[in-house]
Amino acid sequence: MDGEEGVFYRRLPKVELHAHLNGSVSYQTIEKLSKQKPHLNIEQNMTAIGKGQRRTLDECFQVFKVIHQLVDAEEDILMVAKDVITEFSADGVKYLELRSTPREEKNTGKELNILIGLTKRRYIETVLSAIQQCKNEELDIDVRFLVAIDRRNGTEVAMETVKLAEEFMLSSDGLVVGLDLSGDPTVGHGRDLLPALQRAKNSGLKLSLHLSEVPSQLDETDLLLNLPPDRIGHGTFLHPEVGGSKSLVDKVLKNHIPLELCLTSNVKGQTVPCYSKHHFKYWYQVGHPCVICTDDKGVFCTDLSQEYQLAASTFGLSRESVWNLSQQAIDCIFAEDSVKQQLRQKWAVLKPQVLK
Ligand SMILES: CNc1ncnc2c1ncn2[C@@H]1O[C@H](COP(=O)(O)O)[C@@H](O)[C@H]1O
Ligand SMILES: [Zn+2]
């Protein structure tokens, strides 16, 4: 992205609400990790989907497995999180909600012959300390964290994750604001996760759920929309034109549930046939809150500036409309109202400089 056009999108202050930590790892960070772990024999084409390339969603999930192999120790998670936050900040993101699935890895420490265990609690603490370190470096970005549930892992892990998230919501000074439900949408059923999600909601955690990312999840989507969630990830197959239904759309509209929309991710993962057919069009036209996001900027080789530019060029948005889109994202953040006020203030100061 070059030229005057590119400069506008980079300078545009932005809010990123849908970014999976390990999917956001840049090429540069992957290089550093691969050098440290040459025995894994990991090459760049195994961790990223380049320009013009496509994969099935299933193949995308294989990519995450490779990245998880590379990012398996506390110091890796710390570095990855700091790098990702720094990169979002360099791209003009002023407020970021990162999400990640806490993992526990039991590696054998050969020299010591003991188990070096990374616990889920330690995983979350490590991400939070990366956020804190970036704060201390005075990067101009406010970062919050959503604890993620991988749907593949079933009922018990979901409940355990919610309990951890509740603890951190109370002890992290406002950094942990909510819960994400993600993972391979073709595995498992939301009904098994409902008690955990309900509990999370009751305890004050905000919910962002991947819903209808693939077709034929109508029952699950209907069930989970009754919670209702605070935001929806993707929602690709909600509307009737693509096999969804009017009643699903009505539930989303009635509850004003914002959608997190990730153009490149959906096109490269082949759940959407091409940019012009992206469901952004449907929801934007009815005036429903849509937030442009990256999903996995590392894996899909994109950044948030590029996603805004893509939305604008595909759907013919003026710069004024692009500005409004980025500003309206502030209404959808999970942090408290005082943070929204600060961000609105920031946008007001920057507007005459950026939108000349
Ligand atoms: C492409 N569409 C998607 N749909 C569903 N879940 C996705 C996803 N992209 C990423 N994830 C989820 O995020 C994890 C990687 O980051 P973390 O290890 O949690 O930081 C993946 O393993 C998957 O569970
Ligand atoms: Zn996602």
TrEMBL record:
Q: Which molecular function GO terms apply here?
A: adenosine deaminase activity; metal ion binding
Subunit annotation? Monomer.
Q: Which family does it belong to?
A: Belongs to the metallo-dependent hydrolases superfamily. Adenosine and AMP deaminases family.
InterPro entries on file? A_deaminase_dom, Ado/ade_deaminase, Metal_Hydrolase
Could you tell me which species this protein originates from?
A: Takifugu bimaculatus
Which co-factor is required? Zn(2+)
Protein name as annotated: Adenosine deaminase domain-containing protein
Which GO BP terms sit in this record? adenosine catabolic process; inosine biosynthetic process; nucleotide metabolic process
